[in-house]
Amino acid sequence: MDIVILIGLDTFSYVLTLLLVTLGLVIIYGMMNIINMAHGELFMIGAYTVATLLASGVPFWICIMAAPIVVGVAGILIEEVVIRHVYGRPLDTILATWGLSIALKQLIIILFGPGAVSITNPVPGSVSLMGVDYPAYRLVIMALAAALALAIYLVIYRTTIGLQVRAVISNRAMAGSLGVNTRRMDRATFAVGSALAGIAGAIMSPMISVDPQMGVGFLIPAFLSVLVGGLNSLVGAVVGAGTIGGTTGILSANMEQADAQIVVFLIAILIIRFVPQGLWKGFR
């Protein structure tokens, strides 16, 4: 029974972190129709922001708050310099952001070297849950991720800004004719999507190896989550992240990591083949 509880907690922790990255992708794609291949590198920048500030003596929790700001500003610069020039050209956005991802990784290698950076766990120790000792910081990650996901949901579905975002996603031309500044909305959307990836990388940095390749480990599952859950839907992102993250967590506990990834890919392929509109829209 203890091992079941432990696997469940690990899986839930991974699902919530994956959800933050997936939400960023969904917001950017749904709003701007941009397939951002550099999203994993924004995750990476969030982690390296924490590592850099910690090395300068900044307290960990201030580093966590600074990371999404730094990555959000980086997102504004990326949108202004690169993304806005390829709107309406999906293939060009893939190529442009893929090239950007390579450039960002090389920049990190130049600045920090190719090796991994280690970040000390800020909340050492464990908490007893249902008779199982579980790392305290993983519980902190779960709480932060759940709170951020809920905040995004409330902003999108319970505020005027969220109404404008949904209007632009539904019909950009009509939203513009009704007075919504779509250019400003695009810039803000890319910044928010980038910031979500950045804070995910920041909160995960003490738990994983911080290196130039770390973004790939979350980018691929996040894309699968978007496709499996359904495009242009925040609820679909939750369903997709739960499906991909949950399956990965459960299978990884019972088989080799590589074998688990193969099975997850096969499951995703089957879902995309038979429910191409995504699980959320397909079974509503």
> Mean pLDDT, rounded to whole units?
88
**Biggest sheet: strands, sense, closure?**
2 strands, antiparallel
What is the annotated CATH architecture? Orthogonal Bundle
* Whole-number tally of structural domains: 1
CATH class: Mainly Alpha
In short:
This protein is mainly alpha-helical and 284 residues long. It is built from twelve helices and two strands; from the N terminus they run H-H-H-H-E-E-H-H-H-H-H-H-H-H. The chain has helices at 2-32, 39-55, 60-81, 90-112, 136-158, 160-170, 172-177, 182-204, 216-229, 234-252, 257-274, 279-282, and strands at residues 126-129, 132-135.
Architecture overview:
This protein has helices at residues 2-32, 39-55, 60-81, 90-112, 136-158, 160-170, 172-177, 182-204, 216-229, 234-252, 257-274, 279-282; strands at residues 126-129, 132-135. With 284 residues, it is mainly alpha-helical. 74% of the residues lie in helices and 3% in strands. A two-stranded antiparallel ribbon has the order 1-2. The longest helix has 31 residues, at 2-32. It is globular and about 60 Å long. The two termini are 34 Å apart. Helix 1 runs antiparallel to helix 8 (182-204) and helix 3 packs antiparallel against helix 8 (182-204). It is built from twelve helices and two strands; from the N terminus they run H-H-H-H-E-E-H-H-H-H-H-H-H-H. The protein has a single domain, classed as ABC transporter involved in vitamin B12 uptake, BtuC, CATH 1.10.3470. The model has no long low-confidence stretch (mean pLDDT 88).
